[in-house]
What does this fold into?
Amino acid sequence: MDWLIYLGLALVAFLIGSFPTGFLVARAYGVDIREVGSGNIGATNVLRSVNCWAGRGVFVVDVLKGFLPTLLGPRLPPSLDTAIAQIIACLCVVLGHNYTPWLGFKGGKGVAAAIGGFLAICWPAQLIAAVVWLVVFLVSRYVSLASIISVAALPALVFVFSRNMMLTGFAAFVAVVTVIRHASNIQRLLAGTEHKFEKKHA
It folds into this structure.
């Protein structure tokens, strides 16, 4: 009955991912994060629209939302296939984050949650992708561009370090979904209207 365990893992991961960290932290400061900045509930908009410490806190929690279920899920029942369990946990956390039922199935873009998931799946690949993100961001000052380029590099990095085609395919799927979620940002980048990063100080 492993399928029941996989189903339970999927449900728990989705619920963990659906916790609307950015919305709740911003609300604690008296801000409806959906009504300011980009309207996104993710860490970047919280950092810009509330303050840097709030944004950093949201980022850390959202990374942990992806990391812990993906790391611990396959270890609970030893009969589970590790790669399949990791993929289910990571995917469902990201889906929960992106389509949280607590906010009308409207959430973030899943970047921080995916980072946490891939730290559990293949940490060397994710660390290099993070370096790619940092370099692109420091050069361009565009968070969206850094996120798109770093996630696009992830499938090749996962393949190099894991040699697992299932995990590589999942990384490619996450990359495609992330790029699609950034469609509006891509349009603004091409039009030259995307805002460069400016944080609100504490």
